[in-house]
Design brief:
The protein is globular. Strand 4 and strand 5 form a beta hairpin. The protein starts with 8 loop residues before the first strand and ends with a helix. About 15% of the residues lie in helices and about 45% in strands. The chain has one domain. It is of the alpha+beta class. Strands 1, 2, 3, 4, 5 and 6 form a 6-stranded antiparallel sheet that branches.
Length: about 110
Amino acid sequence: MDTVDLQDKIVQIIPAEGWNALFCGGTNGEIDINPIVCWALVEFNNGLRDVVGMVSTVSVKGERGLEMACENVNLLGYAKQGSDLSGLSEDLKEASASFMKQYDKSLN
């Protein structure tokens, strides 16, 4: 995973109760769902600002932290908890599976 550029600056955070980040989960079109810890107003090193979801992480050493969901190349988007995700389009699921297959190939 990419790391946050040290020049990026979190300007403000607010709670994100009830929101999830959706990620490509595997080559069969699975969708991983991670709760958003908070929303952050980020000023990027290029001067642009955006609101991004922050998700909890655990390193290989077991250390906990936060990262911007948008830093993960597998991010599909955000959804309210309890949203009916059964209606996700087959195109999105196929795109997720295709992406993960290409990603797996790039690791070999």
